[in-house]
Every structure is written in C-alpha cells, then in structure tokens.
C-alpha cells in the first residue's frame, strides 16, 4: 500500500511541474528539384561507323522526333547517366561497327558513351543504341557545291 501511495504522489508532482520547453527544430531547406529528379534528355546523336564497307551514319533523336520519347527517357535514366565513357573489347579487330552516343540534357550537361559492335556493355546502352537507330532521323548528307 505504501508503494501505491508513493507512486500516486510522484505522479501528482510530475503533473504539476511544467515541462521544460523544447526548442523547435530549425526548418529544413527544401532540396533542389534537380537533385531529386534527373535532368531530361533533349537530344541524342548516334554516330555509327565502320563495318565491312567502312560506312559512316548518324541518327538524331530530339523532342520533335516521332517515336523518340522512349529514347529520351532511356538516356535520362540513372543507369545510363552512370555509364562509363567507353566500353571497348580487348580485341578490337574485325569489321565491326563503332558506336558513339552523345546526349544533351535540359540542364546543359552532356554525356558521351562509345562502344563496339559485339562488345560487352550494359544492356541499357545497347537498348538505347537500338532504339535510336530505329526511330532516329538521318541527317541529309552534305554535298559541297550543291
């Protein structure tokens, strides 16, 4: 009974003593939108050269390209943005195509990645190369004097 009386006394004292004020936490600064959302890709240029005939071709995808939305989304993904600049095989022989992707982002940054046909590179790189070749616009070749 004595314990119960002591407990009741302590609870009533605690109820009467004002709580110490708690300092308000300083307001947190909002993170910049750019840090949370990846910059959108606005243009992609794929240069393909080599092969048996030594051809050189370009493919361009931008915001006006019909069907180009998937290419621009792939190029904006973090997996693509983290790629190294080059994926080259140990043995560069034979008549393979060389690929060079140059991407421009809305924030003004650029990313360039190159590889060789049949080389080992992350799937997102091959997916983007295939998509840009499929929907990209081939610029008209320049002919001096015309």
From TrEMBL:
- The superkingdom listed in its UniProt entry is Bacteria
Q: Which InterPro entries match?
A: Emfourin
Keywords per UniProt: Signal
Whether Signal counts among this entry's keywords is yes
Tell me the leader sequence span: 1-24
Q: Any idea what this protein is called?
A: Uncharacterized protein
The organism is Paractinoplanes toevensis
């Amino acid at each position: 009974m004595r314990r119960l009386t002591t407990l009741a006394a302590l609870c009533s004292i605690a109820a009467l003593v004002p709580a110490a004020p708690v300092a308000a936490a300083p307001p947190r600064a909002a993170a910049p939108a750019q840090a949370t959302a990846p910059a959108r890709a606005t243009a992609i240029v794929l240069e393909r050269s080599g092969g048996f005939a030594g051809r050189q071709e370009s493919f361009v995808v931008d915001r006006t390209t019909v069907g180009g939305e998937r290419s621009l989304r792939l190029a904006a993904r973090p997996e693509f943005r983290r790629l190294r600049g080059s994926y080259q095989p140990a043995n560069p022989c034979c008549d393979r195509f060389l690929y060079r992707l140059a991407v421009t982002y809305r924030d003004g940054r650029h990313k360039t990645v190159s590889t060789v046909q049949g080389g080992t590179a992350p799937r997102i790189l091959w997916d983007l190369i295939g998509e840009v070749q499929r929907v990209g616009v081939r610029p008209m070749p320049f002919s001096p004097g015309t």
